[in-house]
Design a protein that fits this description.
This protein has 615 residues and is an all-beta fold. Among the domains are: 71 residues, no CATH class; 88 residues, no CATH class; 96 residues, Elongation Factor Tu (Ef-tu), domain 3, CATH 2.40.30; 154 residues, no CATH class. It is 1% helix and 39% strand. The protein contains 1 helix and 45 strands. The chain has a 6-stranded antiparallel beta barrel with strand order 19-20-23-22-21-24. A 4-stranded antiparallel β-sheet has the order 9-10-11-14, with no helix packed on it. The chain has a 4-stranded antiparallel β-sheet with strand order 15-16-17-18. The longest helix has 8 residues. The N and C termini lie far apart (124 Å).
Amino acid sequence: MSYKIGVKYFNCFLLKKVIPAPASPDPVPLPPQWPGLPWFRANNSLGYPAYPFASSLSPNTPGSFKNLNNNMFFIEESRIKGGFNNANITNGVRAYVVNESLDATDKKHSLIYSGLLNTRTSFIETNVFSIADPLVRDLDPLNGSIQKLFAEDSNLMVLQENKISKVLVNKNAIYSGEQGSLETGGEVNVLGQDVPYLGEYGISRNPESFAFYGYRKYFADKDRAAILRLSRDGITEISGYGMKDYFRDNLALISDNYQRQVYTGVINTGLMTGVRTEARILSGGAGTLSGGISGVDIGALMELVEADGTVVATNSRVTSFETDFAIGQDFNFFPAIDFGAGGVYNKINFVTFKRGQILGGWDAHQSSYTVSLQNIPRSIATPVTPLNSSGGNFDTLGFDEGVNGWTSFYSYKPNAFGSLKNNFFTFIDSEIYQHYDETTPNNRTKFYGASKPAEAFVEFIFNPSPTVVKNFNTIGYEGSNGWEVDTYLSDIEGFDDINGTGIYSEFQDSTKSIKSYVEGAYDSSNPPLTGATALDPTATQPIFRVGFDRKENHYVANLINNSFVRPGEIIGGVKMSGVKGYIMTVKLSIDDSTDSGGTKQLFSVSSNYVLSSMP
């Protein structure tokens, strides 16, 4: 009698002879192994048919593939029973197969949308991309890949490497010689016509620079050395507002290439023995800060370093760590590493790959676009000081719409930043900082691990009558007590070879540092050379000031020259008062003694100068 066997999609058969149940000391007898998959036992209960392919048992273990005495076979056959001229089994029906090519197509310049989503009726087709529907919108491939999408009202803003355009959603635009562009409804695609903005600008390969507020969008075009603003009047190159040369030079330093960064930590060779999946760093090695290790991400590759310095590559990666990845903190990794019997490896390298980035965000408190140029991102940079944590150069600066210019450089290097409900937040490592906080007293200037308020400073330039050489004699400011002058430098005067040695040197006039009103106070029992700080307010001896003094609520100080005598100078160094030059760069910082963490205001800074006697 003939019969048909329906086989779907594949022709794979399992042929097995009848195997009687083996003898077992178990009081519960094993079930007979009738034709079909063998049965296995688990916890004195009947098991389920085991899939022999998935068996990881050894060849001598009962129930393993090789222990079935060659009574089980796997065959793949196109004809039933493998007989000559027997019925042939086909592949059956294959759904949605229209192209036999398995080659992937990377369409970086195209948009695609899925089926409908209706939460009210529980209709979901977000995983359906039917090739029967016109669901792809191709943009010009000459404009590069799509880097950023931004939904704005009823349009979709598309930022490519070399072009900015908007794609109309559920509408198209027609053009009339009399009325210009008109939006029309009717039978249109979900993604309608793409309308480019005027100007050959894009976002390069830095979508992280994008930020928006209201109807304004900001982003960087590194390839064209420009910081851009897209508003109702089109694209404006805001980097040209007094900062064109700066951005031309510094945007060129942001590389698209991934850089290999290595952090080295010392491990306890006595404890790190055998096969392990966890470890602890005892101290920092090369490329680390003495207080801990910064910048190691989950997923960082691990390398072992032998006592002689030989590096052994592994495929293990960091999977988790405690609150901060630092000295004394445990971390886990996978796969496991065999550390041997101890003393074999004494260091671990953590390897990660990152590239430069241009971070952008909107500061709602200052109403400014803030951008951070990082040729090496903070997440892989070796900390140098708590504020900048710079293993490479960086600059963070802000553009103020109120003055239509770049108003300030900032000393912090964040991982990311942005605003929420009129508050400005920055993210660094595993921490979040709120800027401009007025609710917590005595908490100012203490962020990003700053150990003292003096790490906060203001730097500016005196530039009156820029074509005239001047002698600057004094400095004064209006504001809070507690400011001190760290540096007071002139412009560079010459680049000369001294005595024909072939060594060229640049000369600058400079002054000694100026102490604050409190730290510069001294009396006869507390001379300034001993590092005088705050004095006893009940002291009866006369108090003198070696730094800033207060006159009618205005803080003033003399400038004491600290330059060395240059060739051709008759009077120089400490024998002359003040400094001379065209312009002066001044750095004011907060001292360590005056109302630590309190408010420090600075309304204005001035300097008295006279014209040089030189013609």
